[in-house]
Write a structure and sequence with these properties.
One of its GO terms (cellular component) is cytoplasm. The chain is mainly β. Helices cover 1% and strands 48% of the residues. It is globular, with a radius of gyration of 19 Å.
């Protein structure tokens, strides 16, 4: 089947997957129900074989979602897909299914696509947002007016944001270890019980030793500076990876060597410093009918050479130290394995086919 695909970046929405190969080219596979193929149309077509998006080889970062985004080496930001709330940031609310540059700025550093809004950071450290005004943390007025923000809008002049993650809500950690949240908290994803919907940014607790965050539609997860892992929010399908309430952050096990995390739909994926990968929650190990979910972290295999994790829906990806891409989970998303059976262990993503 050829050599295993070598990737620099990987991101999946659960419907489609985007990857930047080591040569800087951008590729997609999966389902085109959200227009994620960037081929000018939105339909239910499926690809078990990847196709290249455009011909450029200078892509640096990619985020699969609805819409999807990618950043080039020159700092320009590009997007495509759903735009009903203006979450593409192109000045209108019209869906666009081809690569489209977001403004003319060339100082974008990172971006994340939420369910109805987008958050991005510039190289100067400032945070920008666009899409639904109820979710951007820009204050009550945008929410009361039901106002959508159609182009990138400065939502924080602070320049000390370290990392963030967006879905229905946003979690963001600062360089000083403080954790902040905004957006929809109906499932206690803020870790501040009773917050419901917050139109302004609120601090999560008083701890100042947070290091990394990841969120999904119904939960939050974060790593502290000592390597301990915490989860909170909805505990459905074992997604917290631990017993106890999800109202406030609770530690997953007692290990303190977690280094990277990814959150999907009621499922999580995490990497330890020893190179091992762990999964829990709904279909976290591709378990099919005989194992619907895992309520605590389990290893999909015993390899210890993993360096990167990504997940969305019931689909997991991991990257080895040689940049080879492996995946497992839900059916048609796994290119090169076109049968309709989930993979229950990491299998190599072969390229070319």
């Amino acid at each position: 089947m050829g050599n295993t695909m070598k990737v620099r970046e990987i991101s999946t929405s659960g419907s489609h997957t985007l990857a930047i190969q080591t040569d800087g080219t951008l590729w997609v596979w999966g389902n085109n129900s959200s227009g994620g193929f960037a081929n000018g149309v939105k339909n239910g077509s499926q690809l078990s074989t990847p196709i290249q998006i455009g011909l450029d080889n200078d892509w640096k970062l990619v985020v699969a979602g609805s819409p999807s985004f990618a950043i080039k080496n020159n700092g320009t930001l590009w997007g495509w897909g759903q735009n009903n709330n203006g979450q593409l940031g192109i000045g209108n609310q019209t869906d666009t299914y081809v690569l489209t540059q977001i403004g003319t700025d060339s100082d974008w550093k990172t971006v994340d696509s939420g369910s109805n809004m987008t958050i991005a950071q510039k190289t100067d450290g400032t945070l920008w947002g666009w899409g639904s005004g109820t979710s951007l943390g820009m204050g009550t007025q945008f929410a009361l007016d039901n106002q959508n923000v159609l182009t990138p809008f400065l939502i924080s002049t602070d320049t000390d944001w370290k990392q963030f993650s967006a879905n229905l809500h946003v979690l963001a950690v600062k360089n000083n270890g403080e954790l902040w949240a905004w957006g929809n908290d109906l499932l206690d994803v803020f870790g501040n019980p009773g917050q419901l919907i917050t139109h302004d940014r609120v601090r999560v607790g008083t701890d100042s030793d947070w290091s990394q965050v990841a969120v999904s539609q119904g939960m939050s997860m974060a790593i502290k500076s000592n390597g301990a892992l915490y989860t909170w929010g909805s505990g459905q399908m074992g997604s917290l990876g631990r017993a106890g309430s999800g109202d406030t952050p609770g530690q997953v096990g007692t290990d303190s060597n977690w280094i990277s995390i990814a959150a999907g739909y009621y499922s999580c994926l995490a990497l330890k410093s020893d190179g091992s990968v762990w999964a829990w929650g709904l279909r976290a190990n591709g378990g099919g009918a005989n194992n619907l979910y895992d309520a605590a972290p389990v290893q999909p295999n015993t390899d210890t050479h993993w360096t990167k994790v990504a997940m969305g829906g019931g689909l997991c990806y991991v990257v080895k130290s040689d940049q080879a891409l492996y995946g497992w989970g839900a059916r048609y998303h796994l290119f090169g394995y076109a049968n309709d059976r989930p993979a229950d262990n990491p299998v190599p993503m072969h390229w070319p086919l």
